[in-house]
Amino acid sequence: MIRAVAFDLWETLITDTPDLSRSQERLRTSRMEAILTARGYGALADRIEHAYRALWRRCHELYWSADLDVPCRRQIEHFLEELEVDVREFDEAMLAELEHAYAHAAVDVPPAVVAGAAETLRALKSRGLGVGLISNTGRTPGYALRRILDVLGLASSIDVMVFSNEHGACKPQPSIFEELRRGLGVAYDELVFVGDNAYVDVHGAQRCGMRAVLFEPPVRGTAVAPPVEHGLTIVPDATVHALPELVEVIDSLGARG
Ligand SMILES: [Mg+2]
Question: Ligand 1 centroid vs 80 CA: distance in angstroms?
Answer without folding.
Answer: 28
